[in-house]
Design brief:
It is built from six helices and no strands. It is mainly α and 137 residues long. The termini are far apart.
């Protein structure tokens, strides 16, 4: 029969190994593409995000920051693509003899434009100015 101290020593070693394993998994998550959010990483590893934040605050903050930067970059890329598409649609409408309006652009885009209404109006105003069109809608 094993003594209690041998069992507790073995258990302590096991817990330390588990703890280091979590640290390695979190560091690996920092290198993933696309970067996971902390909630996704935590659930994949079988731990609560709150526990991970308490035990590994720096690594968890790095995961949160990297994910936020990725999402922001992706959002900016989508807006840039939407701006290019809407600009092209407005020029195409004008080339076909149709005065480009917000309604015409929405109709021509066959769905959401990917821009907020204020962004769409500002872009359309710029395109009309570039084309030398009058300001009336």
């Amino acid at each position: 029969m094993r003594s209690i101290s041998t069992i507790s020593t073995r258990h302590a070693r096991y817990r330390k190994t588990q703890f280091e394993d979590i640290r390695h998994k979190l560091r690996a998550a920092l290198c993933e593409e696309p970067p996971p959010c902390l909630l996704a990483a935590a659930s994949r590893f079988g731990y609560a995000p709150r526990y991970l934040r308490r035990q590994f605050p720096k690594i968890c903050q790095a995961i949160v920051n990297r994910c936020a930067q990725f999402r922001k970059k992706r959002s900016l890329e989508r807006k840039k693509h939407a701006t290019t598409t809407i600009r092209r649609l407005a020029v195409d409408l004008h080339a076909k003899g149709t005065y480009p309006t917000v309604r015409q652009l929405r109709k021509a885009s066959n769905g959401p434009t990917g821009l907020e209404p204020s962004e769409l109006c500002a872009l359309l105003r710029d395109v009309k100015r570039e084309l030398g069109l009058p300001k009336s809608d």
